[in-house]
User: What shape does this take?
Amino acid sequence: MSKKATRIGLTSLVLALAFGGLLWTSLSEGTEYYKHVDEVMTDPAPWYGKKLQLHGHVIDGSILRKRDTLDYKFKVENNGSVVEARYTGIVPDTFKDGSEVVIKGKLGPEGFVVEPNGVMAKCPSKYEATNAPSASTAASVPASSGR
Assistant: This one.
């Protein structure tokens, strides 16, 4: 093999290893799973210590706040499965009993520890479906002439 071919092969190998290492470190740090509470709580042990975003609804009456602090404890539920969460910080205005939430943090044997700024409460929709007239009702109503 010629000297030039050896250099090209060695350079290609070094670049491939550098790119692979960069890709590996980037992906391993940024991996975060988005799951519903029931998906995780059926078998929670494999999820301990992993970065998660959990989606569910705050159970009515479960929000507890330690007096004169920003320490919160609350329970999040989805399809009958419940996880207890702890959070220290300011919660959104829409964070209330029954609200739909996504919490970011890590699960452990003692519950879900929410990271700073990790509570996202969804806004209730202004555009909820109303009872639309059925096709038979719409057919019996005379159309306006538009004049």
Q: What stands out?
A: The chain has two domains: 1-31, 32-121. Residues 75 and 84 are 4 Å apart (CA to CA). The helical segments are 3-30, 37-41, 135-140.
